[in-house]
């Protein structure tokens, strides 16, 4: 096992003893020794250390001060107190200052196991910190997205909403909340299946699935609301997030009047077509009747009008 180890110790010989013990127990150290605050700060400003072994008794410099400096400048670096002698009160003081363990110099059998545990714990803390940072960034990005959506939604003559990767609504603009048949407090955290009739929910869920896969979905939906049927022209679109599944945004414009107008145009067109057909049939009948009259009055031309 390789490890970057920082020794805070004033004794070269003691550090040499510690290094030999670590190597004999299977740890290959890359190490540096510091014995004062200036050198410690310089060492902490460079590449990170896997563990710091701090001598509690350093002439002219307190081991507790060194631990506080390490905890402040490199909080993910685990610390182990190493001392020739240490009483219970001192051990508690070092643990309070941030040390994860302590080892006596005259009993180094615990040194390598303590170092291995400290390194494993340091890796776990770094991973936890990384995950926590990612979570905070994700929350911040989500809030920023919601704020932008909210700002956009205030000026949008339609419905604006956002769903998370699990298909649950996490944002809806004022028009959605005020004009919908669902109470505002019932929107957030629920899915289309929990809010809409089955037919409408299936349309919304399929559009969400396609948007989650990266597609911009452009559809005209028919919503069967409690008091009315509403036609909505809707765009579903992905909202990318670093390292995480995208959110899905939706914007809907009520096109019920346009759909009604188009239906009226279709009805009018059909009526005109039917009128034209009736007119054609009437014209054909008129021409035939006039032909028969002409043939009746002029027997010499009978049978020629149809030619």
Chain-wise SSE layout:
Elements: E1 2-8, H1 12-24, E2 28-34, H2 37-44, E3 51-55, E4 57-58, E5 61-62, H3 63-73, E6 79-83, H4 88-96, E7 99-104, H5 111-154, E8 159-163, E9 169-172, H6 174-179, H7 192-195, H8 198-212, E10 217-224, E11 229-241, E12 244-254, H9 256-297
Parallel strand pairs: 1-2, 1-3, 3-6, 6-7
Antiparallel strand pairs: 4-5, 8-9, 8-12, 10-11, 11-12
Descriptive notes:
By secondary structure, the chain is α/β, with parallel strands linked by helices. The chain is 50% helix and 24% strand. The chain contains 9 helices and 12 strands. It has helices at residues 12-24, 37-44, 63-73, 88-96, 111-154, 174-179, 192-195, 198-212, 256-297, and strands spanning 2-8, 28-34, 51-55, 57-58, 61-62, 79-83, 99-104, 159-163, 169-172, 217-224, 229-241, 244-254. The strands form 3 sheets. The chain has a 5-stranded parallel beta sheet with strand order 2-1-3-6-7, with helices on both faces. A 5-stranded antiparallel beta sheet has the order 9-8-12-11-10, with helices on both faces. A two-stranded antiparallel sheet has the order 4-5. α2 packs parallel to α3 (63-73). The longest helix is centred in the middle third of the chain and has 44 residues, at 111-154. It is rod-shaped. It starts with a strand and ends in a 10-residue tail after the last helix. 21% of the residues are buried. The model has no long low-confidence stretch (mean pLDDT 78).
């Amino acid at each position: 096992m390789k490890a970057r180890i920082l020794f805070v110790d004033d004794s070269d010989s003691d550090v040499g003893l510690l290094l030999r013990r670590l190597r004999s127990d299977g740890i290959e150290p890359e190490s540096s020794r510091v014995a004062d605050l200036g050198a410690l700060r310089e060492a902490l400003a460079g590449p990170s250390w896997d563990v710091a072994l701090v001598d509690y008794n350093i002439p002219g410099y307190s081991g507790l001060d060194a631990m506080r400096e390490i905890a402040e400048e490199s909080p993910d670096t685990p610390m182990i107190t190493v001392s020739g002698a240490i009483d219970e009160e001192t051990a508690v003081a070092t643990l309070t200052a941030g040390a994860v363990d302590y080892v006596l110099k005259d009993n180094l059998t615990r040194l390598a196991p303590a170092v291995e545990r400290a390194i494993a714990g340091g890796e776990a803390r770094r991973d936890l910190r990384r995950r926590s940072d990612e979570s905070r960034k994700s929350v911040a990005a989500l809030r920023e997205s919601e704020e932008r959506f909210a700002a956009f939604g205030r000026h949008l003559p339609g419905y604006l909403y956002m769903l998370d990767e699990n298909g649950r609504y996490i944002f809806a603009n004022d028009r959605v909340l005020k004009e919908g048949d669902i109470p505002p407090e019932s929107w957030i955290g629920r899915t289309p299946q929990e809010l809409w009739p089955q037919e409408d929910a299936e349309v919304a869920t399929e559009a969400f699935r396609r948007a989650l896969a990266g597609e911009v979905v452009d559809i005209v939906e028919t919503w069967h609301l409690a008091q009315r049927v509403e036609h909505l022209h809707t765009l579903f679109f992905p909202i990318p997030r670093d390292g995480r599944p995208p959110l899905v945004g939706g914007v809907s414009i009520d096109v019920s009047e346009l759909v009604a107008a188009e239906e009226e145009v279709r009805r009018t067109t059909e009526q005109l077509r039917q009128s034209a057909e009736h007119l054609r049939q009437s014209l054909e009948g008129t021409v035939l009747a006039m032909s028969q009259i002409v043939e009746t009055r002029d027997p010499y031309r009978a049978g020629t009008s149809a030619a």
